[in-house]
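Agenda item 2: zinc ion complex prediction
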Amino acid sequence: MSGPLYGAVEAGGTKFITMVGSGPDGIAEQARFDTATPEVVIPQVVDFFRQAQAKHGRLHGVGIGSFGPVDLDLKSSTYGYITATPKPGWSNTDLVGPVREALDVPVAFDTDVNAAAVGEHRWGAAKGLDTFVYMTIGTGIGGGGMVGGQMLHGLVHPEMGHMRLPRNPEVDPFTGACPFHGDCLEGLASGPAIEKRWGTSAKLLDADHDAWRLEADYLSLAVVNLVTTLSPQRVILGGGVMHQSFLLPMIRERVLKLLNDYVQSPAILNDIDSYVVTPGLGDKAGILGSLALALD
Ligand code: ADP
Ligand code: ZN
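Presented output:
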């Protein structure tokens, strides 16, 4: 194992993944726990790191990338907490405190998507860039990234998954699955939204199903909104829904059409295949991203 060892937690709504390692080529330990209740999962995470320390020696730090909403304000008394999540049992849960106290190591904390973006920046598809967007299309839709070399943190943190898009009710009568907004991006284009609209899991819909034309329409609108707002040097699209590999070319084609040659950059006009991409770290973007948070 080369280099000092760090710990990582990818806290997801379905599963927690933990890792100890030094980078993509130096993974010492990895585990996965169901997202039961905090009373169950947090001790499992702490035990995992204790056992890893007993075997490999002291960790130099731990990074946690979490589903949200989370409190990232270092001055807040609830920094490091998952705040008002609709996920039962998880509202007002301190993630950072118990890990820091049990292991006595520095703990870095960010949203799951910002963590994945940090990982993509260090080792993946955003290497060498200072302005890019990372979006995941899975159970939910979330986005993070960097602008001018700074991670996107603001008043709270971006909620790109809840941007509003035009929906033509004649083409798409589905009113959306977001409990807060109905037909926001997540309400229209997440995995569960696809399943609710068509009555079949997104995993099982054929490549020529209308579902995918609509999905590509919505995701390309979202990409164009981000391109025109943040001027990213690259847009990375990850998450389970993007496993449908025919979707990416459909999105690229629509992004070009929607932009209509307006953004005059060769990165877009001549090389869209390198501009809208899937994560360089694949499905490990989240957990390696949390490791990258710790290294940073
Ligand atoms: P999570 O968002 O929970 O971290 P994923 O990114 O895997 O996990 O997203 C899960 C969602 O993605 C589910 O709604 C599922 O239907 C959808 N999904 C997973 N794999 C595929 C696939 N191969 N094709 C289409 N949709 C998929
Ligand atoms: Zn919403």
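Discussion summary: The pocket of adenosine-5'-diphosphate (ligand 1) is lined by residues 12-14, 138-139, 191-192, 201-203, 239-241, 243-244 (CB under 6 Å).
Owner for follow-up: CH.
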